[in-house]
Structure formats: structure tokens, C-alpha cells
Specification:
Layout lengths: L53 H22 L1 H20 L2 H13 L2 H35 L9 H10 L4 H10 L1 E7 L8 H16 L6 H20 L10 H35 L15 E2 L13 H29 L11 H8 L12 H19 L19 H17 L10 H11 L5 E2 L1 E4 H14 L11 H12 L14 H20 L6 E5 L4 H14 L2 E2 L4 E2 L2 E6 L2 H16 L1 H9 L3 E7 H8 L1 H22 L2 E7 L11 H6 L9 E7 L1 H7 L2 H20 L6 H29 L5 H8 L2 H6 L20 H10 L10 H10 L3 H14 L1 H16 L2 H8 L5 H26 L9 H29 L9 H18 L4
Parallel strand pairs: 1-2, 1-11, 2-3, 4-5, 5-8, 8-9, 9-10, 10-11
Antiparallel strand pairs: 6-7
């Protein structure tokens, strides 16, 4: 099927993109790491005619040549030639819009044998993997060059944020006070979009390390050895199975996440604290002495505690998660303390030590005369012994180095930290401050950040599950026979009455359903985990599909049943947090929270929470429910209303942003997203999810991971402390901008809902024209793709919804409805006047500017020519033509309207680095899409009686892996 006449033609492609043969493959990097989609994060172009990308091209050529050598060696010259022919034809098809090339490409792909097809898919997949590595390394290289040149701070850095704050008159003690009270928490989640196996990630990490090594001065022999090792690791990649043949378990997801702590978080997060203190001292001229006990950035996790729609998560997985968290941090502490024992060798024959340090050394089980004058070593041997005892008590079973002798376990992490501080204080007092710099200071910080729990594990469950559990408890206790049938007012009265009762509903002498027993056991386990690992181990309970106040009270009552909420103390151990997801829920969020906070029993709980309450906002489901424009607007409106309600209640608001990887799921540059929040919503309290393959793209490289963590701090400082409330001009602008946005949202909502939910046959089109069915079969995560066993869009999870549109290169959730909204609004008034207002909004309203920037990025990555190939998979020709024509028409209208507002037809004009990357990358990604369509056609053509060809099936899954690796923000 071709493109409908007059619609859907891809935007003009710049003439003459860089075309490098497979032997010197081109960059596929999606630039999501380090928020490189954000122009503020990019390094400046060096002066003169210096080609700053020359080292990148050299690295890509090197990796491409090595991959070509591996391909020849493993698969033979014939397969290599096939891959090269396909590449050349795909480039011609993309660059020249050559219909003959398109026909040739289809013929080439149709002729491939099953074995050849899988080899070609794997080849193009690894091209993008390796080019991503090269571009990651180049970003690091350019950032270092920028720092070495002494250039001005980048807009997305802590230094830039502090410069702006100082210039605006914000004092140092204000900054330090803000950080002491702040909580900035990236929360890792395990949604089914991470397509790479850990084995692949490990091999790629080695390749990145070896590639970085080549920037160092190496001898010819060292360079030859480096080259040999690079080829060996690429060969390892080729011989490593790309796909999982067994579905991931929650335990697997826990281990995958923990690998990023070992790679990045354990060392780089404490280093960010050092960077921030150094920048404060540099900007204000005084040391940041007030931040010694600050823990403003901490890690969170949903993996093992998020049971919404995942029957595989239970009390045992929560317990396992904390054991593995704790084991990971103890492994790190034990290694660091052991290393410190080797490093800290000061002798009291040469330098004094503090009385506290000497007492700590005397308490050690080490009594060797050889170390009698080395108190730091003896003290550290004692610290190691206490750590080992603590680790065993908390579930660690494999401590590699046996301690010298027994010592009592630590009561909590603060005791461990206090003993480390004794060492640091003694060094500082006795001419040894410099000795604490290489390792000890970082370990003290790590102990404060990670404790003995590593990361706070959130619990999450759907509100309808809580209702079922309480309905059973009420019925068995003889309190209420049909709780679910009660009105909202009656539910609230009953729940409040029950919360005031001293007795419990549950009795061990009754039998309960599996779901009730499971839910209650999870909460009991949470209580035990907090006792065992510390209060930060579990401190949040998130309620999916919060629609009423009763949804919140139900969780408080379940906590009372399990000891997490104690009415006599007016204290809840796990903050009850609503998650507002759909458009109607977002619209009622402020009303619900106002009612919730006004309840006397809740007001007491909030008082014990430090007059702070968290609210989570769902980006993914609101987008699937109402479309890109409406989702963004309703989230913005909900935040503004929440700010007012919380201010009236004198309660501090912490927003938890449930952002996904794609723009359609709230993705895009985190820095811009935080700065675009409404005034008053970022007050030093912010949590945000890091999901799926985005975790890998941001945090698999330590230096890039550190940069991403720094971005969050920088944006939070700017958004939270920059004066903005008294700007009368901006207030006047918003009074004109917001009604326009409201009307655009209504129009976009109508266009989106009309297509997705009200067009007959759309569901059939979606399931046929995207690889959603094949994605559901992939062993990507532990949870199913749909909440229920239906084909309804309403029941489909937002993650595979967005993932599917990304695979077919339409990325519809990131733009559909904008064109209809803007063109319709312009047509109903003075067009020139209205267009001028939209341009003013783009220039002076960060919210609207960020929305346009994210959509610009999505449109640059979309490709209707590729999408039209997927439309050919729809067997009903009338349905195919009717729906694809509508999508193509809206795509063209959206491009046109974006051009009107921005004043340029060129996409990514403000982000030339990403624009170049996309131009060059997609010619090498296109073959994977064409191959995917060919394989899906073969697979779906089988009759019900025919046996599935596993090689074809595997090829489809390989192509999904390859496209996801090339796009990098598909989930």
C-alpha cells in the first residue's frame, strides 16, 4: 500500500546525509542519555573549522569494521554481501524517495531464507548497539573538552543553576536550607520495555570501557591489545543470545536493577553531593558546611513492591527485594572498608589520633602486635567485623572475606555512619584530611544516602483490590454485608467509624480468600521490613486508579489492620499516596485531596509526616485516555489546583511524576520537564519514575549517569528557588495563554477520542498494523501486556501501547490531535491574531515551549513511509485505507501547524546534534522495520493448523529488539 495522495509524505529530508557503509557504520544513537534530546545539555561547537564529530566518526568506523570482520568470520562473505546490499537499497529508498528502491527492498527481503533473515536482523541490530556506545563515549569526550576549555557553565548544570540563583539574590544559607529539606528521588521501575538482556549490557559496558581507553596515550602494543579485546567483546555479543527464552521473573528484574547500582549509583550519587558542595563554595566563596547531614537525593524502587496488575509480586518478592538490596549495599560497604584498611596506615609513632578513634581501635577484635601503632587499621577491622555480622543478620549469605574475629552487629545504619565519622574526624584533626578524600568521605556519604536498605521500596496496588479485600473483611466481621454497593458517602462514614474502633476486623479464626490473605500479608511484611532494615526501607503506599476519598481511607484502614497505622499514635508508617491517572481523575484530584486533608484523622497523620503529603500523577494512562495535548494540559491544571488546595491547608506538596520513556508517556528531557512545571509545584520535593530501557540509556555508563543525576539537582534548584511569583507581566500573559490552551485541549481530546475510542474498527487496525501481538509474546517483563484478557484499548497497558506505536515509527501518542486542535482554533477567529498569540505562548511560556519541543522531537523520529508498510499488514483494505488516511492527514496537519507556530519547516532546528544523528541513523534502522513487516507477514499468514516456524518467530522478536535498541526511548 502506498501513501494516500497528498497526505503523509515524510518531511523533506536534507540532501546528502552522511552515508557510511556497513564497514564504517553510522550513528544510530537516540540521544536520550544525558537528556541529549535537550539542546541545553549539548557541548558547544568549537571555533573555526574543527570537526568536533571527527573522533565520533573514527570510533564508529572502527566498531563497524570490527563488526564487519566478525560478521564475515561467523556468517560468511555471502551473508555480509546481503547485508550490505540491503543497506545500500534502504539508504537509496530513504534518501531519494526512490519507489524503485522500495520495490527492490521488498523483493530482496522476501527472498531471504529464514537463516539469512535472522542474521541480517542481528547485524543491523548490533550496528545500532555499537553506534550508541560510540556516541555515548563522544558525549563524555565533548563534555570533558568543554570543561577543560573553561567555558561558561552549561544551562543544565548545577553551576549554571547556582549562578542564576546568586544573581537573583538567593543567599547561600537559603540554598543550603533548601537542600537540607529537599527530597529528589529517581524511582526505578520494571515495566516491560527493557529489551536488552543483562548479558548484552555487560558486554556493551566492556566495549564502552575499551573504546574510552583508546583516548588515552597507548603504546603500539597496548593499542593492538585494545583492538584485539574490542573484537573479542563484539564477537561475544554476536555469539550471545539476544532474546530471553523464558519470561522474566520479578527476581530477574530486581537483579537487573541492582546492576545499575554497582555500575553507577553507589559511587556516582555520593560524587554528585561532592560536586554540589564544591559548586556552592565556588559560587558563594564559602564552604557548604551546612550540608553534612543532608540526604536530598535518594533512590527509590518499585521492583518487587509494585503489584498493580502483576500477580507475581507478593510478600515474598518484597522480602527478596530488600534482602538483595541490603546484600548489594553491604557488599559495597565491606569492599570499601577492606580497601580503607589497606589505605589508612597512619602510625601513632608519627601522628596523633583522636581519643574516640583510639577507643574504636581498642574495641576491635584485632589484637595483632604488628598493628598496635596503626589505630585506623585496627578500627576498620572492627568496623568490618560489625558490618559482616550485620549483613548476616539481614540476610547476606556470601561474605567473601572472613572477618578477623566476632563483633556485635550494628543496631542501625546511623551507628555505622557514626563510626566512619570517628575516623574522618580524627584524620581532620591530625593533619590527615587529605587521606579521607580518596575513599572515606565518599563512604560516609554513601552510608547516609543508602543506609542498610539501599533504596526505598514503594508498595503499589489498584484501588479495586483494596475494595475487594475490605468488602470481605467487613462481611466476615458482620459489619457490612455489601460494602462495594455502598455510596461514596456511606463508604467514607463506615471507614472513618472503623478507623476509630480499637478492635480489628481480621481474626485468625476465620478463613479468607487468597487475595485477602495475600494483601494483608504484604502489609505485615512491610512492617517487619521497616523494623529490620530501617524506616526508609518502605515508606510509601501508592494507590492506582484513585477516584474517590474512600480509596485513600481504605488503605489507611488496611494499614490499621496490619499495624502500619496506629490510631493511638496518629501515625502511619507508609504514606498513603493517591495516583491520579485518567483525565477525569486528574480533573478531580484537587477536590479529592482537599477533602482528604480536611478529615481530622488524616490531618493528624499529615502532622506526623511533617505537614507533607505526596501525590502521584500518571502520564502514561492520561495520555492513552485523552491524547498528548490533553494529557499535558490536564496534568498542568491538576498541579495548579493542587498547589492552591495544599497552600490553603498549610501542607507541603510533594509531586511524584509517573513519567515513561516516550514523550507520549511523559518522557523527554527531565531538566526541561522540571523547569516547565507550574510555579509552586517544585519546592524541593520531587520524585519521578525512571522506566524500562531509559534506565539503561541514562545509567549504564557511570559518567553519563552522574550527569543525569546532576541534571535533576540543577533543575530542582532552579525551579524551586528562582523568584517568579511577582512577575506581573507573566501573570498577565498566563491569563491570556491558559484559556487558549484549554480550548486547544478540548479540540485535541475530541480528535483523539474520536479516532482511538469511537472509530469502528480502530482496535482491529491497531492490532494488525502494529506488532502489539508479537510484543505481548516477548519475555520483556514479569507483568502481562494487558490488565485483562481482552483486545480493548481501555484494558491495554499504556506501556505496550506506546511501545507498539514506536515500533511502527508512527509514535502516534506523542502528537495526534495537535493539528486538528490548532487548525480548528485558527479557523474560528482572526487567524493572524491567533497565530501571533500561539507564537507568543511558544516564546514566553515554558510549559507550551516544552510541549512543542517534545512534539518536534517525536515528529522528527516518526516516518509515515515506514508506517505505511505496517499498514499493509491490515487485511481489510477498506479499514486500512480509511484509518491510515485519517492518521496521515492529521500527521500532515500537525506538521503544518507546528511549522506555523515555530516559524520553521525544519525539525529540531534548536538541536542540531540530534537532528544530524536522526538523519544519519534512520537509513540504518529502516531495514529492521522492513524486515519486521516481512517476518510478521510470514508469521500471520500461517493457518491455524500450521505449526509456527520458530525461526520466523525468533526473527520477529529480534527485529523488535533491534528497533527498540535503535530508538532507545520506545517504552
Amino acid at each position: 500500500m502506498g501513501l494516500p495522495a497528498g497526505h503523509g509524505k515524510p518531511p523533506a529530508r536534507p540532501a546528502g546525509p552522511l552515508v557510511i557503509p556497513i564497514r564504517c557504520i553510522c550513528s544510530f544513537n537516540n540521544s536520550t542519555m544525558v537528556d541529549m534530546d535537550n539542546p541545553a545539555a549539548l557541548s558547544p561547537q568549537p571555533p573555526g573549522n574543527v570537526d568536533k564529530d571527527a573522533p565520533l566518526k573514527e570510533d564508529i568506523r572502527l566498531l563497524g569494521r570490527l563488526l564487519g570482520d566478525v560478521l564475515r568470520d561467523q556468517e560468511g562473505e555471502a551473508v555480509f554481501d546481503i547485508v550490505e546490499t540491503i543497506r545500500q537499497t534502504a539508504v537509496r529508498f530513504r534518501r531519494e524517495d526512490d519507489e524503485q528502491a522500495g520495490t527492490e527492498l521488498k523483493t530482496l527481503l522476501a527472498k531471504l531464507s529464514r537463516e539469512e533473515t535472522n542474521s541480517v536482523v542481528r547485524a543491523f541490530s548490533y550496528f545500532s548497539h555499537l553506534a550508541n556506545i560510540a556516541e555515548d563515549q563522544h558525549h563524555i569526550r565533548r563534555r570533558r573538552a568543554h570543561l577543560l576549555a573553561g567555558s561558561k557553565p552549561q544551562p543544565s548544570s548545577v553551576a549554571y543553576a547556582l549562578t542564576r540563583l546568586k544573581d537573583a539574590g538567593v543567599a547561600q544559607d537559603t540554598v543550603e536550607g533548601f537542600l537540607r529539606e529537599a527530597l529528589i528521588a529517581p524511582v526505578l521501575t520494571a515495566h516491560p520495555t527493557e529489551v536488552q538482556r543483562k548479558s548484552t549490557l555487560d558486554a556493551e559496558h566492556d566495549i564502552a570501557r575499551l573504546l574510552a581507553e583508546r583516548d588515552l596515550p597507548l603504546t603500539p602494543k597496548e593499542r593492538a591489545r585494545n583492538l584485539q579485546l574490542l573484537q573479542a567483546r563484539i564477537a561475544t555479543l554476536w555469539q550471545t543470545r539476544m532474546l530471553r527464552y523464558e519470561k522474566l521473573t520479578v527476581a530477574d528484574e530486581i537483579e537487573n536493577a541492582l546492576s545499575y547500582y554497582r555500575t553507577t549509583f553507589l559511587r556516582e550519587l555520593p560524587a554528585v553531593y561532592d560536586d554540589v558542595e564544591e559548586e556552592i563554595a565556588a559560587q558563594y566563596g564559602n564552604a557548604a558546611d551546612g550540608l553534612d547531614d543532608a540526604a536530598y537525593m535518594q533512590m527509590g524502587s518499585w521492583i518487587g513492591g509494585d503489584r498493580d496488575g502483576n500477580p507475581n509480586v507478593n510478600a515474598a518478592t518484597m522480602q527478596r527485594a530488600l534482602v538483595r538490596h541490603s546484600t548489594t549495599i553491604f557488599d559495597f560497604y565491606l569492599d570499601e572498608v577492606h580497601a580503607l584498611g589497606a589505605e589508612l596506615s597512619p602510625s601513632t609513632l608519627l601522628v596523633s589520633a583522636s581519643p574516640a578513634l583510639l577507643a574504636l581501635a581498642d574495641a576491635s577484635p584485632d589484637h595483632s602486635p604488628h598493628r598496635s601503632d596503626e589505630p585506623y587499621r585496627r578500627a576498620l577491622i572492627g568496623v568490618y567485623a560489625r558490618l559482616a555480622s550485620t549483613a548476616r543478620e539481614l540476610g547476606a549469605t556470601n561474605i567473601l572475606r572472613k572477618e578477623v574475629g566476632h563483633a556485635d552487629a550494628y543496631r542501625d545504619a546511623s551507628e555505622f555512619r557514626a563510626e566512619l565519622q570517628v575516623l574522618a574526624d580524627s584524620l581532620n584533626e591530625n593533619h590527615g584530611a587529605i587521606l579521607a578524600v580518596p575513599r572515606l568521605n565518599g563512604l560516609v556519604r554513601a552510608a547516609r544516602i543508602f543506609g542498610f536498605h539501599l533504596a526505598s521500596l514503594d508498595m503499589r496496588q489498584s484501588s479495586d483490590v483494596h475494595e475487594k479485600v475490605l468488602a470481605e473483611l467487613f462481611a466476615r466481621a458482620g459489619v457490612e454485608g455489601d460494602y462495594a454497593a455502598l455510596s461514596e458517602d456511606a463508604k467514607v462514614r463506615l471507614l472513618l467509624d472503623e478507623l476509630a474502633q480499637p478492635r480489628l476486623l481480621y481474626t485468625p479464626y476465620e478463613s479468607y480468600s487468597d487475595i485477602t490473605n495475600s494483601e494483608l500479608q504484604i502489609l505485615r511484611t512491610a512492617r517487619e521490613i521497616r523494623k529490620r532494615y530501617g524506616t526508609r526501607a518502605i515508606r510509601n503506599y501508592i494507590i492506582s486508579h484513585t477516584e474517590e476519598v474512600s480509596d485513600l481511607l481504605e488503605v489507611l484502614l488496611l494499614q490499621k489492620e496490619t499495624g502500619l497505622f496506629r490510631p493511638s499514635e496518629k501515625k502511619s508508617d507508609a504514606m498513603v499516596i493517591p495516583l491520579f491517572e485518567t483525565i477525569p481523575d486528574l480533573q478531580r484530584a484537587a477536590e479529592i485531596m482537599g477533602t482528604w486533608m480536611a478529615l481530622p484523622i488524616v490531618a493528624d497523620v499529615i502532622e506526623h509526616q511533617g505537614r507533607l503529603q505526596e501525590v502521584m500523577l500518571g502520564y502514561s494512562d492520561s495520555n492513552k485516555d485523552g491524547g498528548f495535548l490533553t494529557s499535558n494540559w490536564e496534568l498542568y491544571q491538576a498541579e495548579l489546583k493542587l498547589v492552591k488546595v495544599f497552600a490553603d491547608a498549610n501542607v507541603k506538596l510533594r509531586l511524584f511524576h509517573g513519567r515513561g520513556g516516550t514523550v507520549g508517556r511523559g518522557g523527554g528531557p527531565s531538566y526541561d520537564a522540571i523547569l516547565a512545571q507550574p510555579p509552586g509545584t517544585v519546592n524541593g520535593q520531587i520524585r519521578l519514575t525512571e522506566q524500562g530501557e531509559i534506565i539503561s540509556s541514562k545509567f549504564s555508563n557511570p559518567e553519563i549517569g552522574r550527569r543525569n543525576l546532576e541534571l535533576l539537582v540543577a533543575a530542582t534548584l532552579e525551579a524551586g528557588l528562582m523568584p517568579h511569583g511577582a512577575d506581573r507581566e507573566q501573570i498577565e500573559r498566563l491569563s491570556r495563554f491558559e484559556p487558549v490552551m484549554a480550548e486547544l485541549s478540548q479540540r485535541a481530546y475530541k480528535a483523539y477520542r474520536d479516532l482511538v475510542y469511537e472509530t469502528p474498527g480502530f482496535t482491529d487496525y491497531f492490532f494488525a498494523a502494529t506488532p502489539i501481538a508479537e510484543i505481548a509474546e516477548l519475555n520483556l517483563g514479569s507483568r502481562p501486556a494487558s490488565r485483562k484478557s481482552t483486545r480493548r484499548i481501555e484494558d491495554l497497558r499504556a506501556i505496550p501501547w506506546g511501545f507498539s506505536w514506536g515500533q511502527c515509527r508512527l509514535l502516534l501518542p506523542g502528537w495526534f490531535g495537535f493539528g486538528a486542535a490548532v487548525s480548528g482554533w485558527l479557523a474560528e477567529g482572526d487567524r493572524d491574531q491567533r497565530l501571533a498569540l500561539l507564537r507568543e505562548m511558544a516564546q514566553h511560556w515554558p510549559f507550551f515551549a516544552t510541549l512543542l519541543s517534545n512534539m518536534d522531537m517525536v515528529l522528527a523520529k516518526s516516518d509515515l513511509a515506514i508506517a505505511s508498510r505496517y499498514a499493509e499488514l491490515v487485511p481489510d483494505a477498506d479499514l486500512r485505507e480509511r484509518i491510515f488516511k485519517r492518521i496521515a492527514a492529521e500527521y500532515a496537519e500537525t506538521l503544518h501547524c507546528l511549522t506555523l507556530v515555530t516559524g520553521t519547516e525544519e525539525r529540531l532546528v534548536n538541536n542540531p546534534l540530534l537532528a544530524r544523528s536522526i538523519q544519519n541513523r534512520f537509513a540504518y534502522l529502516d531495514p529492521l522495520n522492513h524486515l519486521q513487516v516481512e517476518l510478521i507477514q510470514r508469521h500471520r499468514a500461517l493457518s491455524a493448523e500450521e505449526e509456527v516456524d520458530e525461526r520466523v518467530h525468533r526473527g520477529i522478536h529480534l527485529s523488535i529488539n533491534g528497533v527498540a535498541a535503535g530508538l532507545r526511548n520506545t517504552g
